[in-house]
Design brief:
Layout (H helix, E strand, L loop, with lengths): L1 H14 L4 H42 L2 H8 L2 H5 L1 H15 L4 H35 L10 H24 L3 H10 L1 H7 L1 H16 L7 E4 L4 E8 L3 E6 L4 E5 L2 H4 L3 E2 L1 H6 L3 E8 L9 H7 L6 H17 L15 H14 L11 E4 L7 E8 L5 H18 L13 H11 L1 H6 L1
Antiparallel strand pairs: 1-2, 1-5, 2-3, 3-4, 6-8, 7-8
Helix pairs in contact: 1-2, 2-3, 2-5, 3-6, 5-6, 6-7, 7-10
Length: 428
């Protein structure tokens, strides 16, 4: 029917003084234009029909897969297929007698077919990503980098075939040319190649996952990972700014990932207070009597006194001089108190280390470090627990005849200068 219709149009052009060959060529082009319009109509019609059917199915079953297909517009890409079939039939029917035109349009149709195939596969991969992100496995590892790597390889292969069709060269010839220019290509496509490698390593090794809190000083990044793609990783900092980091930098530069802390269920407190050295002394009987009234260390003091007394008696220590033998100090008793206080604290995770240790002394006094873990990883609760602990410690220090080392303020220096002036001494 199409051929007869083409003959009728060709005859009409011949009747108005056109050459027979020209008439057939003009008729072929006119019918091809009609074929293009028809293919467009079929494209929109098939898209509408498929979407309508899928929406009804989705409304009835409410499947995640159907929703992802609609959101990712997969049906639009599948609608290319009937349109391309119509165009391909038109090309081979109308230009069968025109070898050059047929060869040209056949190459164009092949390019369109490759593009449509790649587009369909890419949309299916997008649907798979959406479905995966809604599963419980998404938190354990992102597949976005792997899928983007697959897309990149697919696009490169499709581009090579398209170039072969457009240029009319064999695949082997083009690959040989690309191999010769590999050094230039490596330089031009350095970032995508490194991103491809980095994305695959991040995904397979689960080094960084969406939702992880990471710190990367080299990129001024300190916040939660929002997105991991083939080229970049997007981090939302705690001041709500966005930092974009090249994917490869996450495996080639130092990065601190706080995921382990969240998974463990405990967050570390590692902070010291500084004790004034001049306030450290041996405990007197009066001090020990007062310390025994403190609930956490009453038994500790009694047991320690028995141990020290036995040690000194066994070695016949001359106890008239306090420095001889062993004696308790107010700093040692204070450390014992802090250790018991922390072991009894209800908001600390006692499956982890609970320790009070003395660090190297310096110009700021004696550092007494608290090393514990809270029973929560939530930032606000963690800060409240930490503040409560150190509020108590700072308030408890004077009970042990100790002083916290503190740099003198302007007011303190002014007061000392005023007291040491002639007017201040006369006033006294």
């Amino acid at each position: 029917m199409i051929t007869k219709f083409q003959d009728i149009i060709s005859s009409w052009f011949t009747s108005i003084q056109f050459e027979s060959a020209d008439s057939k060529y003009i008729a072929a082009w006119l019918l091809f234009m009609v074929g293009i319009a028809l293919s467009y109509g079929i494209y929109y019609l098939s898209q509408w029909l498929l979407s309508a059917v899928l929406r009804k199915i989705n409304n009835r079953k409410g499947s995640l897969m159907y929703k992802a297909i609609l959101d990712r517009k997969v049906l639009r890409r599948f609608s290319y297929i009937p349109a391309l079939i119509i165009l391909n039939i038109c090309v081979h029917t109308f230009f069968s007698d025109h070898a050059k035109t047929l060869a040209f349009f056949s190459a164009i149709m092949n390019i369109f077919s490759i593009g449509a195939t790649v587009s369909i596969i890419a949309s299916i991969l997008n649907v798979l990503e959406d479905m995966y992100n809604q599963t419980k496995f998404a938190r354990q590892g992102s597949i976005k980098g792997i899928l983007q790597a697959i897309k990149t390889v697919m696009f490169i292969i499709a581009a090579i075939f398209m170039i072969c069709l457009l240029a009319g060269v064999k695949l082997q010839t083009l690959l040989g040319t690309l191999a010769g220019a590999s050094a230039v290509l490596m330089l031009v496509f350095r970032d995508p190649i490194l991103g491809l490698v980095g994305g695959i390593q991040l995904s397979l090794n689960k080094m960084v996952l969406p939702g992880d809190w990471i710190e990367m000083p080299a990129a001024n990044a300190d916040g939660d990972v929002e997105e991991i793609s083939q080229i970049t990783v997007k981090v939302r900092n705690f001041d709500n700014t966005i930092t974009t980091i090249p994917t490869y930098d996450l495996i080639s530069k130092p990065v601190k990932n706080w995921r382990g802390m969240f998974e463990s269920g405990g967050r570390r407190i590692k902070r010291a207070i500084y004790i004034d050295m001049n306030s450290v002394m041996f405990c007197t009987d009066e001090m020990l009597k007062r310390f025994r009234k403190i609930e956490y260390i009453a038994d500790y003091i009694d047991n320690k006194e028995k141990e020290i007394e036995k040690h000194n008696d066994d070695r016949k220590i001359n106890e008239k001089l306090e420095v001889n033998g062993r004696r308790q100090t107010n700093l040692g008793v204070f450390r014992a108190y802090l250790s018991r206080y922390l072991h009894n604290h209800p908001r600390l995770n006692h499956d982890f280390t609970v320790m009070v240790r003395q660090l190297q002394s310096g110009n700021s006094g004696i550092p007494l470090e608290i090393y514990v873990f809270t029973d929560t990883t939530k930032w606000r609760e963690y800060e409240d627990i930490q503040s409560d602990i150190f509020d108590h410690i700072i308030a408890a220090v004077p009970y042990f005849n100790l002083r916290i080392f503190q740099e003198p303020s302007d007011h303190a220096v002014t007061s000392i200068n005023a007291a040491s002036s002639p007017e201040g001494r006369i006033g006294k």
